Amino acid sequence: MTGIQHLYDLFLKTGLRPFAFMTDTLQLEQKVTRSDMSTLLILLLRGDLTMSQLASEMGAPLSSMTSIAKRLERKGLIARATSAQDQRVKLVTLTQEGLQLAKEWEQIMMAMLSRLETAFTPEEMEQFTTLLFKAARVFQDGGPVTLQEKKRHAVKIQIEE
Fold it and tell me: Residues 65, 58: contact at Cβ < 8 Å?
């Protein structure tokens, strides 16, 4: 997996939302919210998911995910169907329109992340990705990184301008 793919996955898994940094997304944001778009991107990346799996991927309670899913279903961007294996389980899938919109956002995100890759050396990109993952763990775990972990992972890099 490349540095760009790691960052893309990081943004989706941790709830970090790079969309706020992108000025060329305003037109798309008029169609759906950022939470809606993250949901569509996760479905694009992971494929059909149950509501529970989708809530877990989004890091959201099932009740919130249900509200997002209902909104996306009304807009015709996803479809929810009962699982053939277990009728209590709802599978969420992208519609053609949802797939098209998710691909547009994916292209915008990848273009933004590619700008980082051209600005950083490969070593800087690796360090940047490592630091983002570390920061995400701190926020997800709710506590600071231990001193021992800091010592173990500390790497000094020279940044050229």
Answer: yes
